[in-house]
Amino acid sequence: MTASNSQRLLNVALRGMTLVSKFLLIFFLARFLEPAELGIYGLLVVTIGYALYLLGFDFYSYTTRELLKRERSEWGSLLKGQGALSSVLYAVFLPLLSLIFLEGLLPWSLAGWFFVLLILEHLTQELGRLLIAISEQLLASLVLFLRSGAWAAVVTALMFIEPDSRSLDFVLGAWALGGLAALLLGIYRISRLEIGGWRRQIDWHWIGSGLKIAIPLLVATLAIRGVFTLDRYWFEWLAGLEILGAYVLFMGFSSALMSFLDAGVFAFSYPGLISAYSQQNVTAFRQGLYRLLVQTLVLAAVFAGIALLLIGPLLQWLDKPLYIEHQNLFPWLLVATLLYAVSMVPHYGLYAQGHDRPIIYSHIASLLCFIPVTWLFSLHWPLLAVPLGLCTTFMLMLLWKVWAFFYMTPVHYRQLETTKHQV
Fold first, then answer.
1. At 192, phi and psi to the nearest 5?
2. How far, rounded to the nearest angstrom, does the alpha carbon of residue 312 sit from its chain's CA centroid?
3. Is the pTM of this model over 0.85?
4. What is the mean predicted confidence (pLDDT) over 306-323?
5. What are the TM regions of this chain, as residue ranges (predicted)?
């Protein structure tokens, strides 16, 4: 085996271990923490995930493209500019995020953990993206493993053998240590790259140009992530913190599908679609899109079948009557996740062609749909209102993206039936 093949295998292994560790963590938390604690953990995770976009504005997408156009002697000025923007965003949004605790959305006892974890997650996320951009994929995967996988595996093992570790503070402390280790590793590697340009003045005009590109896509991201954040808070308001623990467990199980699709299908498919369309290679585009569709449908169907078979025995193993009592939530959340997963096929088909507007509009429409639909469902079925709202929302998004894809894609780029025998 060559060195490059060994590195690729190790890279895939690290990504796989990260996914498995995160997947197992949610079940061990459900086993060893009280449902209310799992509910709080779920709220904290989605709130940090949403706040990350406020601290970064997805500006990395602009910076990455600019880095690849320039010599390494100029990179420092670009990274300095992104750092300056983040400093401004920190100054604006960190104080505003205190409202989460002032309004009682999360308990004050978690405020310290929230801000520490938020900053660590943001810095390590940006470092990981930078490492990927400069073709340090293996190190980026190691940073991701330390940030999201290693500490989860350690917590899972310790909670199993050491009763004193079965607390939310222990979990959050391990998360912080994992993030710190990832941050130090990323900083060490970047410091060894001999990047120049750090002494140049901050180019605010360049930052402004980047914001014009980043903000429209950011709005779409905030809208769809808003659905995945609002759902937890709304469910808590309707059902209470304990039953929210069941929701977090079932959503964690269902959303594992997206993690596997992202790592095993989407990450390998959409770069090829972009390349094929930019080169006007019709055959490659159609074949790539058909493979993306088939792989998504097959993996989603297999995952759904296995999940429906395993959920009963897993709940028995958890030995928490509350989870068994509310097992009817799971099929609806699984359907919502399946709809979201399938919508990513036309999503990447549009993205590869540079059609960002229908993606942006569909995401904004999803949030605008979720709020009234969930409210209407809550009048009759309060415990199922949020899952039914998600199903309706993601069905709308799927139909919107499918319509946009067929409307905006040239006919000869979407005649999938002519390529089936080639896949």
1. -90, 0
2. 27
3. yes
4. 92
5. 12-33, 39-62, 83-102, 108-127, 139-161, 167-188, 209-228, 248-271, 292-317, 329-351, 358-377, 383-406
